[in-house]
Amino acid sequence: FTVFVIKPSIELLEFMGVVRENGNELPPVHTPLSYDYVLVAKTIDDQERTAFKKQTEYIDELKKKNFKVTKIIDDDLIFYGIQAPKEIFEKYRYLLKVSDACNWSSDQNIVPLKGLRDLMKMKVFEARNYFGEKVALYYLWLGWYTYLLIAPALIGIVVFLYGLSFFSTSPLIKEVCEADTVMCPLCDKGCKVWRLSDTCSYAKVSLLFDNNGTVLFAMFMAVWATLFLEFWKRHRASYVCEWKVSDWSEEEEELILEIVNNAHCEPKEFRHSYLRSTLVLICVTILVIIGLTHALVVFRVIAAGFLAKESWEFLSNHSNTGAMMLGAVMHYLIITVMTRVNRIVAMKLCGIEKTRSFAATEKSFTVKMFTFQFFTYFSSLFYVAFFLGRINGHPGDYVRIAGKWRLEECHPSGCLTDLFIQMTIIMVLKQTISNVFEFTGPWFCRFLKRRRAQKLQRKCAHCYLKDDSELKNGSELCENCKLRDWHNNYRLNDVDSFSLFNEFLEMVIQFSFTTIFVAAFPLAPLLALINNVIEIRLDAIKMVTLERRMVPKKTNDIGVWMDILEAVGVLAVIANGLVIGVSSDFIPRLVYRYRYGPCANGTATDIDCMVGYINNTLSIAQMNGKNNTFPSTQMITSTGLNVTYCSYKDYRSSEDYSLTPQFWLILAVRFAFVILFEHVLVICKFIAAWFVPSAPMQVKNDRLFDKLKRLKEELR
């Protein structure tokens, strides 16, 4: 069977009296439906087939439980309207009342729907009344997240403009653009020495995102992530208290439903296997991390080698940048494929675990799927941020893959631009293409189904002319009009229990992009804000007009997603500390300014303290009789001049390539900064979490008086 909940059409909503007419709101009346769900099956002529027998047995079992079944046959489809008896709802409400965790007040203020137009704007109360608390909390969370992104987006723009202001005054850019330094070849074959001044534009882009402003912005974003979660708890508490679901437990509700269905049922026991969990964690997660990272690294290295051999001089000179951009596109394609693979693997692992309830299965699936997706998205970013240019060796002893392909190097201006370009391509492609397919896919499917389906007549005049007195007595649509509405719902795109999961996963991955590597991409919150403003409206249109109605479910929180968001917040502190301390040139510049630069002795007053920094970060490889590290064909400049030495980014001796004391000093300062940065921000996060109560005092008092009132009523 295909199972769905009926989604009212405009005519049906008018018939129910819940939309506006001539500006005046019609009074709510009895819903003209004699069914809670609709089952749809293909007609089967052979009554001996197993599928026909199963369908018949299922319908007979429903009838034995006193379910009302309305059967309508239409060509090759059979529709069954299913309505449960009142006794089931009475048992359900009573068990909720005596439950420990689901004691729920029925005195809730249900606001009637005001039509599809208001519903498509996804006001929280309308969404809750139509889709249930679970969907309403998603839109509540997404709206709150989008609202709080305004401040980071504005500050990110300020940081970007701060970097832009240094274009004409920075001595670092001037030193690169006016340098006559000859740099060592970037690959073994096809590459020649090149001049540092050829990468003037690259140096300017680097300074946009690798400046003192990004350090402060990263600290702000770490605290912002904590404040966002704490204020979300308060925001959520206000709504769930008003909806009377503060103590709701999904697992206990499932247990109640099992008892309602079968009073003699046996509960499934809790089980946990440490061995199985460990094997899943080690085998799958590590395979995903190592496999994807290695694949992308190999692709980038091979692509850089091929581009360097191109006859087109522009490609040859920018082979590393080209390989990086191709790697980012390749990474996006891998993400698209692995999303499907990860879903299948996560579902299989959940099946092996044999969880006790659907709520437990949903939680387990969410954790596994997010873990797989997180490493699928961020594997190459971690490589670029923390390994690119740090494990490639030095002239005469380069690290190679399979002894053939040389690993990439960082630009003398730093590696942060590589991380920025990688993030920009993945984030823009993901948000743009995902939104396009997310909306056009369901729309196109519905269009094809409408083209294939026969035209159904409009609602008959008899159903339009029913008066309010007939409606209040339980009168309903005729069979033809019912079939018309059922067909309209059947042609919509299918939804399942994990449909809302997809929306949450997309937004939490975006939240990870916005916080974890924000030091390399201050404009990430701005892109997220623009995307979310569009996303809310597209999701509302899709859910209301293009997809079947989700089964309404009660809940009081966004579930395990809250734990994931808090874990991402902690990881953001660690990652941003490492990006600033290890990936950026913030620490080397700091050490140069106060230890090795012209201002180190405190006497220079008329010179910029960063003059000579780029030259200080370069080491020299001599081409003498002992150290012919590059063939003579690679030591020819673009002007045809033969050179006997070249420079490369590192702190090494020109004689034996040993690391200099400056390298060890910078390394020590890097570690000290990372430890200090993380400890300070973790303390700030704890203070922020302690300072902001998880629920407003008014909400706590309302819950207190509500519980006192309920206990007094029970005592009476």
UniProtKB/TrEMBL annotation:
A Pfam family of this chain: Anoctamin
Subcellular location: Membrane
Gene Ontology terms: cellular component: plasma membrane
Keyword NAD: no
GO molecular function: chloride channel activity
Alphabetized InterPro entries for the sequence: Anoctamin, Anoctamin_TM
Keywords attached to this entry: Membrane, Transmembrane, Transmembrane helix
Membrane topology, record value: Multi-pass membrane protein
Anoctamin transmembrane domain residues: 128-703
TM helices/strands, residue ranges: 138-162, 214-232, 278-303, 323-345, 365-388, 507-534, 558-582, 663-692
PANTHER family: ANOCTAMIN, ANOCTAMIN-9
Entry's family note: Belongs to the anoctamin family.
Protein name as annotated: Anoctamin
